[in-house]
Amino acid sequence: MSVEKRKSSSARYRASLARNITENGFVVMPCSYCTSQGLTCRMLPQSSRCDNCVRRGRSCAGLNLSVAQRGCRIFL
Ligand SMILES: [Zn+2]
Ligand SMILES: [Zn+2]
């Protein structure tokens, strides 16, 4: 039992963090993952990943990031 509890601690942390972003974050331009999955993309100002990417434990490659790198601000 104790092993099982230890094993799921990181997953539980990710789930609670993702829930926090979902509840308190704001909707942003969907990252590539959310776009491919048809999900709503939410982020917190201090977060570098969206709720869905945090929940999945994957890196968040935002489409808006590539736009920002090119100096375009068409979403503002
Ligand atoms: Zn996303
Ligand atoms: Zn993402």
Describe how the helices and strands are arranged.
Elements: H1 2-7, H2 9-24, E1 26-27, H3 32-37, E2 42-43, H4 51-56, H5 63-69
Antiparallel strand pairs: 1-2
The structure holds zinc ion (2 copies).
Outline the structure in words.
With 76 residues, the chain is mainly α. The chain has one domain (2-69). It has helices spanning 2-7, 9-24, 32-37, 51-56, 63-69, and strands at 26-27, 42-43. The protein has a two-stranded antiparallel sheet with strand order 1-2.
Beta content comes to 5-15%
Characterize the largest beta sheet: strand count, sense, and whether it forms a barrel: 2 strands, antiparallel
Question: Mean of residue pLDDT?
Answer: 81
Overall 3D shape: globular
Quaternary organisation of the protein chains: single chain
Which ligands appear in the coordinates?
Answer: zinc ion
Query: What is the total domain count?
Result: 1
- Side by side, the strands of the main sheet go 1-2
**Fraction of residues in helix:** 40-55%
Q: Structural class given helices, strands, pairing?
A: mainly alpha
Radius of gyration: 14 Å
Brief overview, please?
The protein has helices at 2-7, 9-24, 32-37, 51-56, 63-69, and strands spanning 26-27, 42-43. It is built from 5 helices and 2 strands, in the order ααβαβαα. Residues 65-76 have low confidence and may be disordered.
